[in-house]
Amino acid sequence: MTSSSSITIYRQDYTVPPFLVDHIDLTFDLGPSVTQVKATTRLRHNPESESHDIVLYGEALELVKIVMNGKTLAKSDYATDNGELRIANVPDDVTLVVDTLIHPDQNTSLMGLYLSNGNFFTQCEAEGFRKITWYPDRPDVMATYTVTIRADKEKYPVLLSNGNLVETGDLPNNRHYAVWDDPFRKPSYLFALVAGNLVCREETFKLADGRDVLLQVWVEKNNLDKTAHAMESLKHSIRWDESRFGLELDLDRFMIVAVSDFNMGAMENKGLNIFNTRYILANPRVATDTDYANIESVVGHEYFHNWTGDRVTCRDWFQLSLKEGLTVFRDQEFSADLTGSDSGRAVKRIEDVRTLRQLQFPEDAGPMAHPVRPDAYQEINNFYTVTVYEKGAEVVRMYQTLFGRDGFRKGMDLYFSRHDGNAVTCNDFLAAMADANGRDLSQFERWYSQAGTPRVRLESHYDEKERTLTVSLSQFCPPTPGQTEKQPFLIPFAIGLLDSKGNDMPLRLKGGKDSGTSCILELSDASQTFTFVDVAEKPVISALRNFSAPVILEYEQSDDELLHLLSHDSDHFNRWEAGQRLAARRLVSLTKAVQDGQPLTLDTAFADAFRTVLSDTSLDAALRELALTLPSEMMVAERLDEIDPHAIHQARQFMRRTLAEKLEKEWRDAWDRNRTEGTYRPVPSDAGKRALKNLALSYLLALDNPVYCQMAIEQYNRADNMTDRLAALTSLVHSGCMNRHPEAKALLDDFYREFENEALVIDKWFSLQATSPHAGIETITTLMEHPAFTLKNPNRARSLIFGFCHNNMAQFHAADGSGYEFWSKNLIELDRINPQVAARLARCMDQWKRYIPSLRKPAEQALRHVSEQPLSRDTREIIEKTLS
Ligand code: ARG
Ligand code: ZN
């Protein structure tokens, strides 16, 4: 686990595999403390390779023996070094039999084969298969698999692997076996095995071509009543991929399994997707509207990988965004389409952009900044990032913005016809889009190769006499680690013009034809000027509509212009954006006022604008809720050169309290009038109402009025669903009510008792306390000692530790450095258990160089302390980059 010197792997060093695998037979004799793995692999020399060496990878394996073409190899027949096993000068065709022993019960990394609640699961992406057996564990080696699983029949009645079940039977000593056959060639990272005491919800489903497929959702027995939504989401996913992309399910059986110990969200193993329970289990009692929405999108995401990931996979791990960026884009479009309305699409877009800005922009501006297609890594697991996923999805979206839905579809069709069954690169995807649309996209490749968030400056001039509007756009991308100079990007810049009544004006570019009321300017140079003609009056510009490119827009618009956009823009995204810009502008000056000890004030015009939005019942509740949610503390931090977490927190609290006071009556009305009727349904319209109602409640609780505490307590007691219950409890805990109302305090205990047996709800219980602005280090330390807390379960560790270190800015950055000390202590401990999860925790300090001086010192101390410990390769890479 510990490594003194880390090796850096470079994209430029890619070489083809010397040997390819046609087929692998795997036999598992499962036991928790010892599992025997026998791998029989047929290898064939790759004519494209100069080398005749077989290179296998392995980690934490006990090698029993290797037999090559019938002959047992002696130690001197191969060389092992740093996780590589090399057999030199091998003939063209070989059969290799490798016997190994592994120890699932000692595997706390949750990579390879491990145990969760006594059942067996695997996670092989990115390089987990090498913890199962010695193998050419790289994505460009694709093989068909036959898997035999043998295990105790009583303890492990269910035995699953990829593909089709071909045989089952009994064995002596109360054991049994199953044989699975996967006819599709796949890389080892898509291998999966599950064995244990599980039950399933199943259904037969008819595909568009008339074939019947078996769909299954496997869970532990007590969770069977929480699988309906996942099954519905799966069926929606299948239908959507058929209709939007013409892509059908290629198997007779598709299985989903939920596991409570899991490092990430979920995994697209061929025909056997494995999920973190939090993205499967739902019923109204335990899951919130957000949980329901996340389940739908993650089930979609993993299902869509079957084509964008499994059928066409990545040549090497630098190409990760080829499958992840594309599949995130697909799941975003899926969720947007399922809302069934334009405003639903806008809500989804706003949420996605909020995530991008809140998490990816800081990454792109920090020590871990890397291109969507990275050039180098020490540990690939550190590159499952918001840049590869979310910025990657924005890059894919830009093709669709440039070529339209039809052009994008043509590109997808060409991509599959060229590359089905192969392991390819981001450039192959770009070439398919370019060729299908007859366009040279060489400049567009810079979105894959250059890190950093480009800034686009807009300046405009209206000529009243000529009735022309000139729009000058210029771009600049700041330097990032290893990339000082950047070339201009090709930026699709969507724009519209509003007249003084708020209507969209017709657009005509000089020398061009009419372009409707919204058009895409293509910015490709460092700076360019566009001229609109026949512009009847001085317009208000609606820039970067629907966030048409992942850039930071620098455009000075007056409050009046922003207020005009907020009330009239036909682009829902930009209406929201205008409100956020008005709020952010004020939060920045309020933060400065806090720092300078000046009195804090909020102008009436702003409060009135918020009032208008809040009372505008023609707008969907979901859109109003988004518009009235203030930019997060992290978003404000992004706009400041130096981060003063306490000043930011106070500024935002002041703004919330002031808006609560000034709009008290309207918040009350919003809370009263947005109750949902009848039984709970997780549909967008109802979810939007609940979101607005609960936002209103949280504003009202900022008033410190016992009446509202009582109102929240009643909402908690009356709630027939987790959304309303959790929102009430969170608002109570995060407001002053908790300390003044013994009744409120009792609810926390009540909640715990009620949901003691629902792990995912207990995670919520930990995290709502960890993120409270009142939760100091003592509260967190007490929670760490709670019997239900454990570092070994990633969800639990995240709920408390990440909740505090990542989502509690005010308390984590305590002036005495106690938050940082807490971070370093737990990071070191977690790293010994689970390097992958620890490396994520390490990222909490990304921004430390931008903290105010008094915090920089203790932050650096904490980082140095960590760096002096023996660390996993994962955590070492992050800490070194953070300190450099
Ligand atoms: N491919 C998975 C997804 O759908 C993520 C797996 C990441 N696993 C890991 N160990 N880094 O996004
Ligand atoms: Zn994915």
TrEMBL record:
<dbReference type="Pfam" id="PF17432">
    <property type="entry name" value="DUF3458_C"/>
</dbReference>
<feature type="domain" description="Peptidase M1 alanyl aminopeptidase C-terminal">
    <location>
        <begin position="559"/>
        <end position="883"/>
    </location>
</feature>
<keyword id="KW-0862">Zinc</keyword>
<dbReference type="InterPro" id="IPR014782">
    <property type="entry name" value="Peptidase_M1_dom"/>
</dbReference>
<feature type="domain" description="Aminopeptidase N-like N-terminal">
    <location>
        <begin position="23"/>
        <end position="190"/>
    </location>
</feature>
<keyword id="KW-0479">Metal-binding</keyword>
<dbReference type="InterPro" id="IPR027268">
    <property type="entry name" value="Peptidase_M4/M1_CTD_sf"/>
</dbReference>
<dbReference type="InterPro" id="IPR038438">
    <property type="entry name" value="PepN_Ig-like_sf"/>
</dbReference>
<dbReference type="InterPro" id="IPR012779">
    <property type="entry name" value="Peptidase_M1_pepN"/>
</dbReference>
<keyword id="KW-0645">Protease</keyword>
<feature type="domain" description="Peptidase M1 alanyl aminopeptidase Ig-like fold">
    <location>
        <begin position="452"/>
        <end position="556"/>
    </location>
</feature>
<dbReference type="InterPro" id="IPR024601">
    <property type="entry name" value="Peptidase_M1_pepN_C"/>
</dbReference>
<feature type="domain" description="Peptidase M1 membrane alanine aminopeptidase">
    <location>
        <begin position="230"/>
        <end position="447"/>
    </location>
</feature>
<keyword id="KW-0031">Aminopeptidase</keyword>
<dbReference type="InterPro" id="IPR037144">
    <property type="entry name" value="Peptidase_M1_pepN_C_sf"/>
</dbReference>
<dbReference type="Pfam" id="PF01433">
    <property type="entry name" value="Peptidase_M1"/>
</dbReference>
<comment type="similarity">
    <text>Belongs to the peptidase M1 family.</text>
</comment>
<dbReference type="InterPro" id="IPR001930">
    <property type="entry name" value="Peptidase_M1"/>
</dbReference>
<dbReference type="Pfam" id="PF17900">
    <property type="entry name" value="Peptidase_M1_N"/>
</dbReference>
<dbReference type="InterPro" id="IPR045357">
    <property type="entry name" value="Aminopeptidase_N-like_N"/>
</dbReference>
<dbReference type="GO" id="GO:0016285">
    <property type="term" value="F:alanyl aminopeptidase activity"/>
</dbReference>
<dbReference type="Pfam" id="PF11940">
    <property type="entry name" value="DUF3458"/>
</dbReference>
<dbReference type="InterPro" id="IPR035414">
    <property type="entry name" value="Peptidase_M1_pepN_Ig-like"/>
</dbReference>
<dbReference type="InterPro" id="IPR042097">
    <property type="entry name" value="Aminopeptidase_N-like_N_sf"/>
</dbReference>
<keyword id="KW-0378">Hydrolase</keyword>
<keyword id="KW-0482">Metalloprotease</keyword>
<protein>
    <recommendedName>
        <fullName>Aminopeptidase N</fullName>
        <ecNumber>3.4.11.2</ecNumber>
    </recommendedName>
</protein>
